[in-house]
Amino acid sequence: MKGRLKQFGEWGISSVYKYNKGKKVPLQRYWTTRYIWTLAIGLVIVAVISAWWIRQTTLEDRLTMMEFMAEEIANQTVRGHSDDEQSLSDVDVREFLTNPGKYMDIDSTPVIFITDTNGSILYENKQANRQPIQLNPALLEQELDVQQMEIKDAQDHMYMVKKPVAINQTILGWVVLLEWKNNLSEVNQEYRQLFVMIAALAIFGSIAIYILSNRLAKPITAVAKAAEQIKVGKYDVELQDDVKEKEVYELIQSFKAMSDRLEQLEALRTELLAGVTHELKTPVTSISGLIQAVNDDVVEGEEAKEFLRISLEETAKMEKLVEDLLAFNAFAADTLPLVKTTELLNELIHRTIHRWEVTQDGEEVEDWTIDITMTSDEMYAKIDPIRIEQIIVNLLNNARDARQGKLEIAIRLSETEENVYLDVTDHGMGIPSSEQLYIFERFYRGKVKQSQISGFGLGLAFSKMIAQAHGGDLMLMTSTKNKTTFRLILPKETDENHHLL
Questions:
Q1: CB contact at 8 A, 74 and 68
Q2: How far is residue 289 from each of residues 302, 337, 359, measured CA to CA in Å?
Q3: In the chain, count of helices (H) and strands (E)?
Q4: What integer pLDDT is reported at residue 126 of this predicted model?
Q5: What are the strands, taking DSSP E only, across 168-289?
Q6: DSSP per residue over 117-159, as a string?
Q7: Contact in structure between 410 and 373 (CB atoms under 8 Å)
Q8: Which one of 50, 229, 239, 423 is separated from 151 by 20 to 30 angstroms, measured CA to CA?
Q9: pTM of the predicted model over 0.85
Q10: Cβ atoms 492, 380 nearer than 8 A
Q11: What is the mean pLDDT of each run of 10 residues along the chain (501 residues)?
Q12: Any bridge partners for residue 474, and if so which?
């Protein structure tokens, strides 16, 4: 039975722990609670230290007052005797010293003794309602004026303050004051003031913590609500950015930028989906119509062959589009590995440009200018040459499509200690600033390409992925109305590595 109860108890504690662990608490309540607990613990520590300090300070001050009173009584006793008297036989204490507790701000009355040099008591304040205390004469011989004594069977310590009664440096007797430690350190009034102060600090501190936590939680809560709107497809969110905290302000600005970006990409996605559909639908419709005409004997002979030739060309275009799409998806999924070898980039660039020129229309080549500049005759990089050639060809095709009249392309190959840079510059129409942020997005096609050039808009996105897979990058350096420069960055192969090949 006990074992079952123990098992049930452990299960219950575990369940409560798991429930509390998974339960989410609002930000304002979470931090307000913890700040208030921190404030409470801090105030308790301050209160304890302050109470101890007040008690010790009060004890020291009252002991000092007792010393002053003992010295005053000794002086008064001396004034009541002539210089030739060598002993104390009778004393007369001033009235205000018969009730010393009144002047020490305590409820009790300290015991006052005046003794001769042998310890015989000559005076005792009768107002003190105390149990009889046997004064030990040996205590008078000690050097300390303030002594703490342990009283047998008492739960408190007693302080003794003594001062000598002396005439012409001759000690005639002693003034002794006795009081319990608890009476000397009792400070009820000060404790009440301390309590009021701590309570006031706790109240005002809690209010301040609540206000500050609310100020911090409010913009974050607004961002969380905005995120919920974005999750359901509502990108038009409004967030107040009149906050003073730098981190919160940056969070809001970043979130708003993200929201605008998502809204643009969503619109872009819809537009691109329509474009991709159009790119595939157009050749399919064309092929279907041409073949249907041949099949229905609408055209015959050479015209039918022309229709079939056009259908094959459209089929090849569509096949190329699908191949590009499949290659891009395979590369994005890391299922298309790179076959890297150490290549001399100088030769690769010349070879690639020559092949590209051969595939272009011969009449147009006469009006083209391709200027190649290389800062070194031997620049090596460990690359997949086929993939790097794809990037270069894609940049050359883009430069060709952007030309305005005569095509002028400048290719510059340079290097640093770590990287090789290939800059491709054309003097075409340039890329509008509104489109520059999206040119590396997959399926993105600018307004000019949408109306004039077929394709999926995967060229630059695919090229950038290839460059990054090599440990480099492809970026747009600058683009104006008559000049555009792309830069391909590749890790440099060290001399030691390529000489070992």
A1: no
A2: 17, 40, 30
A3: 13, 12
A4: 61
A5: 170-180
A6: TT--EEEE-TT---------GGGGGSS-SEEEEEPTT-SSEEE
A7: yes
A8: 50
A9: no
A10: yes
A11: 46 46 68 83 88 85 84 76 57 58 71 78 64 63 82 81 82 83 79 84 84 78 81 77 76 81 73 64 74 78 80 74 67 68 88 79 62 82 86 85 79 88 86 79 62 61 84 88 88 61 44
A12: 488
Return d(Cα 219, Cα 415) in angstroms, integer: 48
Give the amino acid at 109: T
Task: Tell me if residue 388 falls in helix, strand or coil.
Answer: helix
Query: How far apart are the C-alpha atoms of 233 and 231, rounded to whole Å?
Result: 6
- How far is residue 302's CA from residue 312's CA, in Å, rounded to a whole number? 15
- pLDDT tens, position by position, 91-139: 555 555 656 666 666 777 788 888 877 777 777 776 445 455 556 677 7
Query: What is the token pair recorded at 430?
Result: 């340039």
* Residue 486, burial from CB neighbour count under 10 angstroms (0-12, 13-18, 19+): buried
- H or E segment and range at residue 230: helix 188-231
The structural domains of the chain, ordered by start, are: 21-225 (3.30.450.20), 235-334 (1.10.287.130), 337-499 (3.30.565.10)
pLDDT in tens, 459-470: 788 888 888 888
Residue 53 φ/ψ region, left for φ over 0, alpha for ψ in the -120 to 50 degree band, beta for the rest: alpha
- Amino acid 127 reads Q
